[in-house]
Amino acid sequence: ADTQFPLRDGILHAEDIPLPELADRYGTPLYIYSRAALHDAWHRYARAIAGHDALICYGVKANSNLAVLHEFQQLGAGFDIVSGGELERILAAGADPRLVVFSGVGKQGWEIRKALAAGIKCFNVESAAELERLADIARELGVRAPVSLRVNPDVDARTHPYISTGLKENKFGVDIRQAPELYRQALQHPGLEIVGVDCHIGSQITQIAPYLDALDKLLDLIDVLAADGIALRHLDLGGGLGIRYTDENPPDPAELLTPVFAALAARGMGHLQLILEPGRSLVGNAGVLLTRIEYLKRTEARNFAIVDAAMNDLMRPALYEAWHGVVPVAPRTGTPIETYDIVGPICESGDWLARGRALPLEQGDLLAIQSAGAYAFSMSSQYNTRPRAAEVLVDGQNSWLIRPRETLQELYAQERIPHRA
Ligand code: LLP
């Protein structure tokens, strides 16, 4: 899967750099991203939309390092943001606000103001109450807010329940049956300009069918709106395309988009701009987490490889029981293969990165945890007063430190001890 992380002369590389060199230079735990892999993932989408009116808005939450955002900005991406903080980040990375959509169920007043001032492309509104707040703020500022309703099409994305968002019991979006009424209300508001419709049904989706089901429902809605004289400019299908962590075979962007464009044309909606909000599929397999084995520990029940990365660095296993590939950076031949749980030093039983892996390991070895480009660093914390890991971007033989390891002082620099009189 990770063609930009090849095994050469018995050593795992990031593009042209042996990983042990990066470990020596930057220390571990270390996030390493391949620029070529980011570009490859982007171009798979770019090829799939070629010749169509479509915009890829990178889902910033997957990996929001400025250097990563800058790569996508340079490639022509728009951005899907979910907070005022993400808006600041993408602007700092050089993004054009006119290519930005703003999703999320809990947009605060200051975030709405900030996005209106920046002049973003669209607010993906998720409730009647939010629509009202947006309209009020826009009117107060004397502008019109571009809006799209995020509808909940009630389809099953057939993924992990924590990352499935398109079922009617989820907190996300507006019930698709209530959408026409909300659109009619929006039409009356001088502070609002209706521009589109949106959905996002989940993440790590490995089939096309749920997307096409959702699309059908959105197209039905668009017909209903048209009958009411409400014309849209775009249709946003959200993100969610999966990646291979182990043996998944997720569709390529083209496998998804060919039938999507065909359905739009067949329904006479070829004039609509198509927006997508991919996150994971643009960055997930462009990164690894490099970690070093501190200790091997054998107990009656299990063998543990205790490494210097932990759940604070990569919380997906603890949170979703997610599976990440673990490969030795310099695979040994003379060492017996044993079954290990790969765990961190944090004081929680949930602090594991992988379980039951048969590997030939020795203390001090480096391991690469794969598919760590998405929802990895961006979900990291400083739990147990552990500095967040450094991040490096590799391009051929060059590497850039795109975020230094945090210092211990930084971890508590903002804290204050009250001095009572
Ligand atoms: N658009 C919206 C409105 C979203 O909520 C998300 C992700 C995306 C786009 C991007 O989805 P993607 O293409 O990356 O699947 N932390 C979880 C994933 C949470 C996804 C949240 N929403 C994980 O580690 O698997």
UniProtKB/TrEMBL annotation:
Record-annotated Orn/DAP/Arg decarboxylase 2 C-terminal domain positions: 31-373
Residue ranges annotated for the Orn/DAP/Arg decarboxylase 2 N-terminal domain, each copy included: 38-283
Cofactor section: pyridoxal 5'-phosphate
GO annotation (BP), single: lysine biosynthetic process via diaminopimelate
Positions contributing to substrate binding: R280, R316, Y320, E348, Y375
Substrates-to-products reaction catalysed: meso-2,6-diaminopimelate + H(+) = L-lysine + CO2
Residue positions binding pyridoxal 5'-phosphate: G240, E277, P278, G279, R280, Y375
Its EC number(s): 4.1.1.20
Pathway annotation: Amino-acid biosynthesis; L-lysine biosynthesis via DAP pathway; L-lysine from DL-2,6-diaminopimelate: step 1/1
NCBIfam families xrefs: lysA
Name used for this protein in its record: Diaminopimelate decarboxylase
Organism: Castellaniella ginsengisoli
